């Protein structure tokens, strides 16, 4: 029995070593962290737009020690229990807050982040919201409330007919403006 446990522990240890090797292949040699350049390289290798998550912990949780395994795991992450995806979605926004007191993210970055984080699962909504964000002039940045509001919108509102949308419910004004823009575009 000890021989089996020992073999299992060695296999797990080897797998974790491979995960660390993958992590450090993209990490900055002096800081030991994946910096923006490393993220761009990794995302380029994965053929996705660049943003970051807690890479090492995420790679271990996904048991991903190759780029192929990461690519394979991303669609599964979107299918996870909704609370897991909401946590990931929230974290993605928070990670992009690079300044100490920063509370919002510029529209261009938000468009990229939306496509990366929700573009596979809510393709139509994301494409139209990105189009709206690029066309409008009222908003230069998006805050966490607006970011999370769009996630709720994608999960709760029937699309594309919007029949379940109620502008009288509390929510970010940007979503009311988006729906008005959509309705005008559809008519």
TrEMBL record:
InterPro entries reported for this sequence: DCN-prot, DCN1-like_PONY, PONY_dom
Residue intervals of the DCUN1 domain: 1-183
Domain of life: Eukaryota
An example Gene Ontology CC term for this record: ubiquitin ligase complex
Gene Ontology molecular function: any one: ubiquitin-like protein binding
GO biological process: protein neddylation
One Pfam assignment: Cullin_binding
Described purpose of this protein according to its UniProt entry: Neddylation of cullins play an essential role in the regulation of SCF-type complexes activity.
PANTHER family hit by this protein: DEFECTIVE IN CULLIN NEDDYLATION PROTEIN (PTHR12281:SF12), RP42 RELATED (PTHR12281)
Name of the protein described by the UniProt record: Defective in cullin neddylation protein
Organism: Carya illinoinensis (Pecan)
Taxonomy of the source species: Eukaryota, Viridiplantae, Streptophyta, Embryophyta, Tracheophyta
């Amino acid at each position: 029995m000890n021989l089996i446990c020992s073999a299992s522990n060695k296999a797990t240890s080897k797998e974790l070593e491979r995960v660390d090797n993958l992590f450090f292949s993209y990490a900055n040699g002096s800081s030991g962290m994946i910096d923006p350049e490393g993220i761009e390289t990794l995302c380029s290798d994965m053929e996705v737009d660049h943003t970051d998550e807690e890479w090492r912990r995420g790679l271990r949780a996904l048991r991903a020690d190759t780029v192929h395994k990461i690519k394979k795991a991303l669609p599964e992450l979107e299918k996870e229990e909704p609370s897991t995806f909401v946590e990931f979605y929230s974290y993605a926004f928070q990670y992009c807050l690079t300044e100490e007191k920063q509370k919002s993210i510029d529209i261009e970055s938000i468009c990229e982040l939306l496509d990366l984080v929700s573009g596979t699962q809510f393709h139509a909504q994301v494409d139209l919201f990105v189009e709206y964000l690029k066309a409008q002039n009222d908003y230069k940045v998006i805050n966490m409330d607006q970011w999370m509001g769009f996630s709720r919108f994608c999960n709760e509102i029937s699309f594309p007919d919007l029949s379940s949308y109620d502008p009288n419910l509390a929510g970010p004004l940007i979503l009311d403006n988006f729906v008005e823009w959509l309705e005008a575009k559809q008519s």
